[in-house]
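Record filed here:
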Amino acid sequence: MLNGVWMTLDSLDVSPAFLFISLPEEISHRPSRVTFSDCKGNDKLHYEVSSPYFRVNTDGSLVALRNITAVGKTLFVHARTPHAEDMAELVIVGGKDIQGSLQDIFKFARTSPVPRQKRSIVVSPILIPENQRQPFPRDVGKVVDSDRPEGSKFRLTGKGVDQEPKGIFRINENTGSVSVTRNLDRETIATYQLFVETVDVNGRTLEGPVPLEVIVIDQNDNRPIFREGPYIGHVMEGSPTGTTVMRMTAFDADDPATDNALLRYNIRQQTPDKPSPNMFYIDPEKGDIVTVVSPALLDRETLENPKYELIIEAQDMAGLDVGLTGTATATIMIDDKNDHSPKFTKKEFQATVEEGAMGVIVNLTVEDKDDPTTGAWRAAYTIINGNPGQSFEIHTNPQTNEGMLSVVKPLDYEISAFHTLLIKVENEDPLVPDVSYGSSSTATVHITVLDVNESPVFYPDPMMVTKQENISVGSVLLTVNATDPDSLQRQTIRYSVYKDPAGWLNINPINGTVDTTALLDRESPFVHNSIYTALFLATDSGNPPATGTGTLLITLEDVNDNAPFIYPTVAEVCDDAKNLSVVILGATDKDLHPNTDPFKFEIHKQTVPDKVWKISKINNTHALVSLLQNLNKANYHLPIMVTDSGKPPMTNITDLRVQVCSCKNSKVDCNAAGAPHFSAATALLLSLFSLARL
């Protein structure tokens, strides 16, 4: 590695050739210089070096600007005056095995060149600064062919000539001078790979193509830019000095191997500038932003604003005044930690609530200096004493952070007129180790229960009684009982009927005796599943009076008070039917078993000669009516008597109308216009289907 070594070539003419330079680790040398002559006094002589790590001074001395790794490094030294220009390529091949001064090294390079393939076309890389101004076209280099046949021409090809972007470079086909037609942008294309060849008058290649590299020399024409914003960093309050907050890095499109893209960072402005105008520092090379104040100054609760905005500047040219700059804003949030415990605004709170009422009765207020958006501020309340019956609960109001104390089970003034609760408050987040909850984190709540006139209460509720239906009017069912919870008040209770859907009941307003005003009917539409429901009121003598409601459920036992009835009551049969079955009869009864089936079916009397009709039992609920002989077409009325199994039994007689119809050619004529007609066989099938579903 070499740092600041001055290397000179004494009396060495620069020519388009390769010079191999070996750099030893330690060099002692005599001054040497690069010499160039345009044979006209070298007026306005200018040197350009392809590497940013070297510079050639106007006196020809070659300077290494910083530590470099020598092995494998290739340098192009370009010398130019208004009258002539030339270039030399220097290759550094290492130096541990070569000792002596730079003068000896260059002598070695001159006398021991690396063998090269001989060619007549001689080209050297062309170095062109970007952003050159007019005039254009401008000569930038020259190709030499010492053995070029007479009449042959130079031809230039490649990207930038006959490939996009076309027309940037061209060559004088006779002299070999290479020119550029417009200014170049290194950030668009850094190098161009061109090819030179000689061709005859017919365009056939005589020699080549030989590669020609055009290197665009960078200029500092791009400002640093911050591309990854917005930049937001967080640091915990009380953090130690030197805590890294965030990193900000900028991008520079210039050549990263030059100072044109070597960036340095600094803080241009801090807002706010309290408690110190220098709360933060940025590493000029890395872009790391760190705290520089003591932990005591980094206290979120004492800061005017926990948010700081820094204007960060990035400057190229390693921060020199000539460098270009770019800025961005860094926002730094001072995050809260739980270093303040919540404190009640007072030690005791008062609340008043009516007995029987529920809901929020008081809001407990606390103060906490921490950030309201964090768990270090949000409060959590706990009842730690005075709530054995779990009649109270407390929850946090998320907007105000207050503790909302609620009654969740009705309070009874007659049991306790006063309650005292001990409540503590904590944060959702744990406190930092050096902070604890003190006496201000607990408070006492005194609750006064107000007496109200409570409604009388029936006991039991519901009240239940079982009675037979059809008991005599005026029968006593029961005596209801209601008590007044206001045991400390002397009040009387009066009773009344509230809901009696069938109008069957009456209640004594003084003693609560309930009797009947009508017959109870289990089969009434007001009775459901043999239960009749009625409601009664008990009203005390308070001011204002309070009323309680009680429910009476009367279970009605069945008696045989409903006769059975048959279905259907109409049947049809053909006058020439071979099957003399007429209809299957069914019977039903509104009463309950055993006051229903088995039913007894009989023909009460017949209006035609005996032995014409017959009824036969099928099962407990059905019987078959049939003919013993065919009858003439007519309508017949047959009285059917059905009797249930109750004690005593009940009987019902119903006329069965049988239509004997004419059935010919699949037509049924019963002289019943507009009525549907079915054959006897169809009627029988329908009856059998009905029987099968029972």
User: Anything to note?
Assistant: The CA atoms of residues 239 and 295 lie 5 Å apart.
